[in-house]
Amino acid sequence: MTDSNTDIAVVSLAQPLDSIADELGRSFEQYGFAVIRDHGIPQELIDRAEALSKEFFALPDDIKKAYHTPGGGGARGYTPFGTEKAKDAKVHDLKEFWHVGRQLPEGHDLAEYMPANIWPAEIDGFRETFLELYAAFEEAGGRVLEGIALHLGLPRQFFAPTVEDGNSVMRLLRYPPLEGAEAEGAIRAAAHGDINTITLLLGAEEAGLELLTSQGEWKAVAPPEGALVVNIGDMLERLTNGRLRSTKHRVVNPRGEAAYRARYSMPFFLHFRPDYIIETLPSCIDLEHPENRPDAISSHEFLMQRLREINLA
Asked: Which 3 state secondary structure label does DSSP give 257?
């Protein structure tokens, strides 16, 4: 456990949720971030997924680019270097990535919002492993949302129907090794907030993830090995009228030898259902100034608005 007033919470999901909900919620209010141990995603599955991710990114560029869908907004398959940039950033981020989304049965009501997945034929076991990891991420995310609901004084299962069949996306991410004197401390992903409900990140043990505190200082996020870093996205900030913070964060290159290695990570962007209306929770309305809240908007409409801002739509 951490000092409850001074740092990002590190909590175990093996504990009863009502015993950790307020520590979790306090961390999300203060920092927008928390660290989760005992999250239930098997280490064997994580290791397998990391190996397959590296195997895919090691393929020749022309093979990887065959899985890129121009005009697809990067929703599925491969997105090459120099495509995505942070909102208001002048330059594109130094990364390539692969997206796995929800597998919906044919004829599903929400199929129009979620394109079919693309799978690389060159990598054995890729589809099975990442569908398994997607489901495990979703389960861990559901537990975190239960803790958030308890902290907000909502029924424990409040968020379950809001994220059921949500447009959640798992990203396999590779930052290439940098070269030269400028590599140490270089910015690999510019400061940005996440669009979605909550993000769960595997692979943040490699130094470099930093969040912007409310005092305007960059603070390193350093989870123990195997832990998940969880942060609040813009959709949940909007739903809670800013009570839970969607904090700007960035990835900087570490100092020393690690500066010259590739960096891999796997964030899971957990989303509301596309048809869920994000409307301020009654408990998060300022009774003295009830007009001080964002307009209601569907999660799909909000997503499209934001994707246009970051060059992906």
From this structure: helix
Whole-model pTM? 0.89
Concatenated DSSP letters of 124-181: TTHHHHHHHHHHHHHHHHHHHHHHHHHHTTS-TTTTHHHHTT---EEEEEEEPPP-SG
Nearest by Cα to 168 from 149, 142, 205: 142
C-beta of residue 202 within 8 angstroms of C-beta of residue 228: yes
Q: Is the pLDDT of residue 82 over 70?
A: no
How high is the pLDDT of residue 99? 95
> What pLDDT shows up at residue 70?
81
Residue 4 has a pLDDT of 39
What is the rounded distance in angstroms from the CA atom of residue 168 to the CA atom of residue 268? 7
Q: Taking the CB of residue 285, how many other CB atoms lie within 10 A of it? A: 14
Cβ burial of 90 (10 Å; 0-12, 13-18, 19+) is exposed
Name the region of 216 (left: φ>0; alpha: ψ -120 to 50; beta: rest): left
The C-alpha torsion from 63 through 64 and 69 to 75, rounded to 10°, is: 150
- The predicted structure's pLDDT at residue 2: 38
CB atoms within 10 A of CB 190: 19
Q: How far apart are CA 223 and CA 206, in angstroms?
A: 9
pLDDT, one tens digit per residue, over 10-64 is: 999 999 999 999 999 999 999 999 999 999 999 999 999 999 999 999 999 999 9
Q: List, in sequence order, every residue forming a beta bridge with 277; answer none if it has no partner.
A: 298
What is the rounded CA–CA span in Å between residue 231 and residue 211?
10
- What ranges in the chain are assigned the alpha helix state H? 17-30, 43-57, 61-65, 126-151, 160-163, 234-239, 299-309
Helix (H) or strand (E) holding 230: strand 228-232
- How far is 65 from 62, CA to CA, in rounded Å? 5
